């Protein structure tokens, strides 16, 4: 289980030195990073950040990767102006900090973003991906929001929604075998509940030897042993979106 003095291992990993190819925009009361492909498309993906917020270069790198694969990508500030977590913060305050940033209470912001994508970007098919805190948010949206088409939850914190499994849309769950905050017993239980209750397509995949955050918080060039799994996770994510959008 997670170390109680450090209840989230989100400081594991690297911060990419990356600037981004998109732009920041104001969408009603939300700031967002948006990147669009050169060719017109009616397919879009909402990218939900981890605890380090919408400006993390790693998350923008993934958003731009989606754009190179033909998608409009938008990463909104789902903390809505509240400060993102900093690695230098006192982990003893993390649970209090998290109480004001509930991954299951982003519906108002998602509705605003969906409206923007439809009206301003011409999107007709919209998916969502998310990392850690954002992965939990994806699971919430796949259980509740009828206006999305599919989702990919990357090491989403299962315990926030472990009693719910009747998904509305096809959902892909990515987990690392060595994730300290998401024990494999929780992943097994999720699979069992999905098998019992889920009537849409889903997949749960565990990547050998990988820790929390591996798809977007590990650099291939300094983690050579992890490179195949980082690339596989990203490819699987894109393939799932391609299938359902």
UniProtKB/TrEMBL annotation:
Swiss-Prot/TrEMBL keywords: Cytoplasm
TM region positions: none
Coiled coil: none
Localization terms from the record: Cytoplasm, Cytosol
Keyword Iron: no
CC annotations in GO: cytosol
Pfam families in alphabetical order: DLH
Domain of life of the organism encoding this protein: Eukaryota
Keyword Protease among UniProt keywords: no
Principal location class: cytoplasm
GO MF term list: hydrolase activity
Domain Dienelactone hydrolase: 30-245
Family that this chain belongs to: Belongs to the dienelactone hydrolase family.
Name used for this protein in its record: Carboxymethylenebutenolidase homolog
Taxonomic classification: Eukaryota, Metazoa, Chordata, Craniata, Vertebrata
Gene expressing this chain: Cmbl_1
């Amino acid at each position: 289980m997670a170390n109680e003095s450090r209840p989230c291992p989100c400081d594991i990993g690297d911060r990419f030195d990356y600037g981004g190819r998109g732009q920041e925009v104001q969408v009603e009361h939300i700031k967002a990073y948006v990147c669009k492909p050169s060719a017109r498309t009616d397919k879009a993906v909402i990218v939900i950040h981890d605890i380090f917020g919408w400006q993390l270069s790693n998350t923008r790198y993934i958003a731009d990767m989606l754009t190179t694969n033909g998608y409009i990508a938008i990463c909104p500030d789902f903390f809505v102006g509240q400060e993102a977590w900093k690695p230098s913060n006192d982990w003893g305050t993390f649970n209090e900090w998290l109480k004001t940033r509930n991954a299951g209470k982003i519906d108002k912001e998602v509705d605003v973003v969906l409206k923007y994508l439809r009206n301003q970007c011409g999107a007709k098919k919209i998916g969502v991906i998310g990392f850690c805190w954002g992965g939990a948010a994806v699971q919430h949206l796949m259980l509740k929001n009828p206006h999305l088409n599919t989702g990919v939850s990357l090491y989403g914190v299962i315990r926030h929604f472990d009693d719910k499994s009747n998904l509305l849309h096809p959902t892909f769950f990515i987990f690392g075998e060595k994730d300290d905050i998401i024990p494999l017993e929780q992943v097994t239980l999720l699979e069992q509940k999905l098998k019992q209750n889920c009537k849409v397509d889903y997949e749960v995949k565990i990547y050998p030897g990988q820790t929390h955050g591996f798809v977007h918080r590990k650099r291939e060039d300094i983690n050579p042993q992890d490179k195949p799994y980082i690339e596989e996770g990203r490819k699987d994510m894109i393939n799932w979106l391609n299938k359902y959008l």
